[in-house]
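[scheduler] slot 2 assigned
[scheduler] job type: sequence-to-structure, two independent chains
[scheduler] chain ordering preserved from manifest
[runner] begin chain α
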Amino acid sequence: MAESKTDTPLPPPTHAQSIASPINLILFALLLTLVYLRLRPKPPPTLSRAPPPIVFRTFTPPMLKPYNGENNMPVYLAVNGKVFDVSNGRNFYGPGGPYENFAGRDASRGLACGSFDEDMLTKDLEGPLDDLKGLGEEEWEAMRGWEERFQEKYLVVGKLVAVGDPEASKEGA
């Protein structure tokens, strides 16, 4: 007669490895750490302090003069009656820069003529503004080009008027 399957000797039982082996515990802890690091709430980003607001002002030449970049002042210059904050271009317009003569001044004639000479600037700050008489069509075009470039790149912070102008007295009050 045939032997039944129950009569055959069975191999000795092997010990089943536990899930809690040291390597599995290390891998599980690593997985939990990675999930935590990925899903933990992030602190809100800190924003840098905003610069103080710049108010549109009316400037006279003597009021504009201190804005030449010295003594930690911003760098302003005027072109065709508009005052621009060119502080971002301090390397060009501030102290030691190639255009430093124009800082704190009306740069219209100098930019129109392509000259950085001191004689292109109005000497009498208390007198009338430069009316730009004597400029040719090419020089007017050059000045308008500079004005457009400044409007694209820099903030207009005011306008330039003569010392006796009624708008200047309103600003001072």
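[runner] end chain α
[runner] begin chain β
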Amino acid sequence: MLENDSPLNSSFTDGLLFTRATAFEVEFQKEAQEALQQRNRWTMFSCQLKIERDIAQGPHMYYDGAIWQVLRIYDDNAGSFMTALAPHGLTQPGASFQTLNLLGSRYQTLGIAVPARTPFTASQPLQGLRFAIKDVYRLRGLKTSLCNAAYLDMSSPAEKTATIVQNTLDAGARIVGMTKLSSMIGKEEPTEAVDYPAPFNPRGDGYQSPAGSSSGSAAAVAAYDWLDFAIGTDTTGSARRPALVNGVFQMRPSYDAASLAGIVPVFTPWDAPALFTRDVKILKRVLSTWRNQESSLTRTASHKAPLIVYPLDYFPLENTLQMQLIDAFLADLADVLGAQIRKFSIASLWEETRPDVAGG
């Protein structure tokens, strides 16, 4: 735990606090007592509160009559974040978020407060994971900027947190900040924006465009091993392009498979949340908490075999090695899903079905 958990070091074993839900004394086996007594300076606490409910898991320190959570501050050297967030009281229903006004060790760099990774539990499938969100998601008590100074000035503090973000928090993940994007969720390259500097793409020489519009979310996941995943959005490629150029995994669920409540829209029929991570195993863990129970996909069961559309207008490619990989992937996908592959040409279909009013 000390090796894998960034806020921890061996000095924390000098003072260990053990709690339980009842008033009975905590008992240890002889071997555990001997191991603890080698370093531990014992202090006895008597508290009437149910500590397990009120204190987040992870390292804490006792100072001036209070117990404080310990976090580690990382510099946002890639410039991926719009703002850092103060540790959020997840056990306080309706609690508002607050920004963390903390500078990093480098000039004009934010400091991001990162909690400890705590052990995974079945009751909270995302426990111990840290994440960030694109600044298009509403967070209770905070304004939304869309990476645009004028929009931030006109924005009002949100009354409710976006459903996707709340589901992720309820599953045990810890939010550390909001990330940059193309200004106003626009089509322009992030490097063309003027209000806020674009995030650095950590791939290549570090000065290539991170692409947009979910530039900060992809760049942050690519740059920082202390960030487990980030949430962006995708309408016409806003997550697919950043994932490609920053070299991370990305997935956007089918439309209406995840709630859009609390997301600033671009074009609602195409909008979808998107997930960035370096580990494909995390994709499944996070997406399982996003399922929209009101989705038409959930309400309507379909027994039809899936269909994979193969547009002949774009394939095959001249690169034969690339085509071998694509065809092998499609064959495996069809086999796993029990799907059919239908090849057709959009141009040919138009010629065959074009209405007379369309002319020649």
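[runner] end chain β
[qc] chain β: Confidence is low (pLDDT under 50) at residues 48-53.
[scheduler] slot 2 released
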